[in-house]
Amino acid sequence: MLNLLKSGDARALAVTSDKRMTALPDVPTAAEAGVKNYETGAWLALLAPAGTPKPIIDTLYKALAEAMKDPALKSRFTEQGAEPTAGGPEALAKFMASETVKLGEIITKAGIPPM
Question: What is the pLDDT of residues 14-53, one digit of tens each?
């Protein structure tokens, strides 16, 4: 995406996150561009199997949080248009639950059948 924008083959009108992207600081959010309640985006997460003992989850999170401090790694994410965060297992669970509700409502309203 960023290469298309830099080459001029595409133009960014807005980003769909709640704040401007580090990689595109001059591109407004959808809300700033006048489209309210339009926040969405792709995300990825480090997950473990259900029932993984908490000490193992804590060790994985600690390693992830430490890795995210590396400026080179953060830069690679940012170059790809990502906004890296490491909010912790509880924050991730809360985020995933809210995304499930939000996207479930959209899927239901659109009449998209289950796969």
Answer: 999 889 998 899 999 999 999 998 888 888 899 999 999 9
pTM: 0.72
Residue 88 CA to residue 12 CA, distance in Å, equals 31
Residue 59: which domain range?
42-115
∠ CA 22-24-27, rounded to 5°: 125
Residues 21 and 75 in one domain: no
Task: Report how many domains make up the chain.
Answer: 2
The 10 Å Cβ neighbour count of residue 95 is 14
